Amino acid sequence: MLVDSLRGRRRRLPCSLWFLLLFAAGGLVLFIHQQDLSEMVQQQVPGQSPPAELRLSMHVLMLSCSSANALQDVRLLKRMNMYRTLLRKPRPPSEPHLELKPGLGTLGRSWKKLSDILEARRQLMKEMCAKYKSSISRTITRHHVKHLFVEDKYKLLYCQVPKAGCSNWKRTLMVLAGQAPNTQSIKHDTVHYGHHLKKLDSFDRQGIMHRLETYTKVMFVREPLERMVSAYRDKFENPNNYYHSLFGKPIISKYRVNPSWTALKTGSGVTFKEFVQYLLDVHRPVGMDIHWEQANQLCNPCLIDYDFIGKFENMEEESNFLLRWTGAPPNLTLPSFKDRNPTDKRTSMQITQNYFSQVSMLERQRVYDFYYMDYLMFNYSKPFKDLY
Ligand SMILES: *[C@@H]1O[C@H](CO)[C@@H](O)[C@H](O)[C@H]1NC(C)=O
Ligand SMILES: *[C@@H]1O[C@H](CO)[C@@H](O)[C@H](O)[C@H]1NC(C)=O
């Protein structure tokens, strides 16, 4: 009886009161975050990156506020901007620009420049890690090294960041390992499904630690939004049973209004906007994938002290520099195959901007937020001028 009457009363609570309660709770969370911010920046929670956490709670808030007026959004954005200014470190003095096509005579000089740039990247990474990640030394587990490929002959560990020149590096590693005479002779499927290269997590603890301590550790990154668009184009704009079935179906069924029977059945035709909605959803209907996961999440650069942080944007020069550095055969250079959908144009910044014109300003902002740690750690500048 009592329960019944209570239930009845609750049902009668006006909808607007619930909204009020929701905002009150949201405001409280925001307030607590503000209070704890300075502590978080210095102290840092082990195993978590505070800004990402902060962002996540902002996103939850923004989601819960999405039905409110735009003013609320603007105020939240301003606050986020304030946080970011607090979190951001001052930029180091600029470094000399890279010579892209060195003549033979200037080779030595240009490589000196390149090694300075590489060193600056490592330093920046160290500063970012000191600032945002745990100061308590965390132990490396098998899970942390599961994306690292092992090449024992030349003592290389290569962290796989898909859509950042990964296939061409896999080919190169196979040649180094003596599994193929040259990179041209390796077929696409062999690169991707052959399982010829060993992963570091397949070794025992001692094997893992020994290699981490003595091998050259390498990772390559790419402009985060460009990489994300590249992943979308590769997996959703081309026939791909695996991705359409595993990701396409739940994405279409959650975000598309009135999906057709065929779309639900095949999972084909996910739009870029739908993909963005999925990526930003705190309750994603299906998990993340290495093709669009943040590079810092895949390679754990704060735990693993990479000797070499290369950039896709200058892939060939930096890779060949690395190959000479490791003592690879002189005639081995990084190939430039475009394995996936060779007829599609390579994703450029121009193409990336075209894709992002299909989503709202707020969504674009939130995708940038999503990859913000990659932007900070790998020193990429804001891809759009109007981002906070
Ligand atoms: C970061 O990038 C900017 C602009 O591209 C460059 O001037 C600066 O030297 C870079 N800093 C580091 C530490 O790599
Ligand atoms: C490099 O040269 C050797 C000997 O001439 C040859 O066997 C090998 O295939 C070449 N490697 C590449 C990557 O072209």
TrEMBL record:
Transmembrane segments: 12-32
GO cellular component: Golgi membrane
Keyword Transmembrane found: yes
Keywords on record: Carbohydrate metabolism, Glycoprotein, Golgi apparatus, Membrane, Signal-anchor, Transferase, Transmembrane, Transmembrane helix
Enzyme kind, highest EC tier: transferase
Pfam families: Sulfotransfer_2
GO molecular function, one term: sulfotransferase activity
Subcellular location: Golgi apparatus membrane
One BP term from GO: carbohydrate biosynthetic process
Family: Belongs to the sulfotransferase 2 family.
Full protein name: Carbohydrate sulfotransferase
Organism listed in the record: Echeneis naucrates
